[in-house]
Amino acid sequence: MENNIEILAPAGDFETFKAAVNNGADAVYIGGKKFSARKNAVNFSDDEIFETVKYAHLRGAKVYVTLNTLLKDSELEAAVEFVKLCDDANVDALIIQDLAVLEIIKSCNSNILPHASTQMTITNVSGVKKCEEMGYTRVVLARELSYDEIKKISGKSKCELEVFVHGALCVCCSGQCLLSSVIGSRSGNRGDCAQPCRLWYNLIDYSGKRVFKSKKYLISLKDLCLVDDVEKLKKAGVKSLKIEGRMKSKEYVSLVSNAYFNAKKDGRVSDKTIAELENIFSRSGFTKAYFDAHICRDMLNFDRNNDLVYKNIDENVLKKASEMAKNEYRKRKIDIFVKIFENEKLSVRFSDKFGNEVLYESSIIAQKAQNAALDKEKLELSFSKLGGTAFSLDNFNCDIGENLFVSAKDLNFVRREGIRLLEEKILCINNKKTFKNFEYKIEEHKIEKSDFTVSVRTFEQLETVLKEKMFAKIFVPYSLYKDNEKVLKSDGRVVCVLYDTFGDKMPDISQIDRVSAVNIGQLDMCRGKEAFSEASLNITNSVSLDIYRKMGVSCAHLSNELTIIEIKNIVKSIDTEITVYGKIAVMLTKACIVKNGIGKCGCEAEKFLYTEDRTGRKFPVIANKLNCTNTIFNANPIVMSDRLNELKSIGVRYFRLEFTDESADMVKNIIRLYKTGEKCDFDFTRGHYYRGV
Hints:
Blueprint (H helix, E strand, L loop, with lengths): L5 E5 L3 H8 L5 E5 L14 H13 L3 E6 L8 H13 L4 E4 L2 H9 L5 E4 L8 H10 L3 E3 L6 H9 L4 E8 L11 H6 L17 E3 L18 E3 L4 H7 L3 E4 L6 H17 L4 H10 L5 E2 L27 H11 L6 E9 L4 E8 L4 E9 L1 E2 L7 H8 L7 E10 L3 E2 L2 H20 L23 E5 L3 H8 L4 E7 H6 L1 H5 L4 E4 L16 E4 L12 E4 L8 H9 L2 E5 L6 H6 L5 E8 L2 E5 L3 H6 L10 E4 L5 E7 L4 E5 L4 E2 L4 H4 L6 E5 L5 H13 L17
Parallel strand pairs: 1-2, 1-10, 2-3, 3-4, 4-5, 5-6, 6-7, 7-10, 9-11, 12-16, 18-19, 18-30, 19-20, 20-21, 21-22, 22-23, 23-24, 24-30
Antiparallel strand pairs: 7-9, 8-26, 12-13, 13-14, 15-17, 24-29, 25-28, 26-27, 27-28
Helix pairs in contact: 1-2, 1-9, 3-4, 9-10, 9-11
């Protein structure tokens, strides 16, 4: 069966939305005024959401709404109301990150299809299958996947797959970026990213030397363009080709949507079109590094300030794009059949190619003609006047008695009424389910006391913490665990932290009893074991926490973006954990900082290098050789050693100390602070515990 691949375009306002539909988009994704990961776009009012769905559906297009931010408990009621509004508007799908929204869609009996956002960091077959099992009908894959990985996933899953094909690339795996959040309280998970990745950074290598003598944009990626690969993706079984750009202009959306429409239709586009795409918006050209599995410095906008990309659009390209944005040529073709006989009511049948048909029988009765009688030509002229509607006349036929007359006014009335009925027929959803109230009961899990846990990154740190009796659990990364498995397996406190999995390469945990998952795709691996979850699963509310309980998690590390009050208000159905010390992870990237910075592979196990920003802050970076990813950590650690009494009243079972680049002596000093409750004497942060996002 041929894969009728979908061109999915972005829109940040109604005019851009119309431009997308009229330039070849099969579907358009938009955001409402709340819960959208593009908070700073104009976005759509409630009334506009109804208007967009009507406009799209009449023209054979679909509308997906982004409800893809993480939700706090205080926002769940408003989220239910927004889902209901989208259901009433007949929105086709919701693109979601938070598992609580999926639960709302299912338990409220919504007609809307749930699509798993790329913010969920779905990177492999197991992740897609987990989403399918949970009830998602489509998964938006992580942008870091190669063509071969996408093809393998498609061949092993039934779920629809959506792939980003054009526009801005995040250097961090979507859903795992806290850099903007920790340095400026603007969270990407809450729709407010300030894009600090687009600024310049230096690199401090393993020997402590600065690598660059001038400004370099070390983590600023070029834009993506896969317009030449539409046929490949089609053959691979991908369902939807997604264009990034809800913050971009209607001219950009028009030009890009039309280019991918033509690539879908013709199998290719011209070199001139590709040049126009690059000119209308790109950061020093395009890259296909992830798609081609060719990670290197060429994928970066390495030497240039990205601010310049907004000022270099060719006048002729802009003029062409502006004209395209004014197009309103997309119409639904219809057939009209008119029947007029003496002493009979005038009747007209309106139908389209999708099985929609209405028969309008008017009260108008034709008269004998005094002058010129009606004929097929005159009737067709009257019924072809469909300007201002979503329709265009394809075939016209009629059956007319001899020497009859109907006034132009009456014919116009019949045409308008018939079109109105056809619109109602097309927009009506038969057997629509009734939206129910949202009810979700959680049985609270009470705790008697709180204990400390610890996570390490180096063998030196591991040796130090194993000697400490204060830790109820010790979290050890997979590679370090495997290197010391014989010793660690006998210590009932040790938990193996899995690494981020891309493609088919999965960790062997068959002989490991206690594991901690870093993404949702690993949960099925953890069945039958004592399972924990890391902060990277982004748990921010009571409902999503309880859903993870149902999936086998016995203790969950809550999101690092919650305040103390928000943590306290979460109904905890299982043990929970928070970070009370540590340089938390702010980025997970496959754009290898070691290779892109130094110019060649050369990562060293358990050793840190650093990115240094324009203020002199140094962010530790560690490479994972098992999957060629880098994790970047915050420059300053969270310190709550002097606030432990306050934390003991919020219902959290475990307080974690997270060690990254600390020496053994520093580890001992930090442990001492938490034993005594003293303040620290070095630069630190309270994280989001008092400021939130």
